[in-house]
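Q: Give me a backbone?
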Amino acid sequence: MSFRSLLNNTCNIKQRVDTADGQGGYTSTWSILYRRIPCRFNALTADEMTILYDKQNIQADYKLFLEYRSGIKEGNRAVLSNGRIFDVVLVMNWDEANRMLKLAITETDK
């Protein structure tokens, strides 16, 4: 069974874009970085909810697996095909092989 065959959902990856509002401030919007990419969404087990990574303590509720895409980083958003929105809190390049990403995500209210 291939990794791609396990990706049973789709999502959009969005990045935050700050635009000058002409009055000295900025307006933030979310633009789509990747559209309708195959992914797999799973809840984290109790042991996985606190991730120690690079001497940082990361709190997450879910994980999202997808094929490697450059440019995905912490602070991006993942929007599942059912409309649920998640903040990306950690991006792990599995085996550093540029084949698979594992994202630690938390659900947001917006």
Q: What stands out?
A: The mean pLDDT is 88. The longest strand covers residues 26-43. The beta strands are 9-20, 26-43, 50-53, 56-59, 62-67, 77-80, 85-93, 100-107.
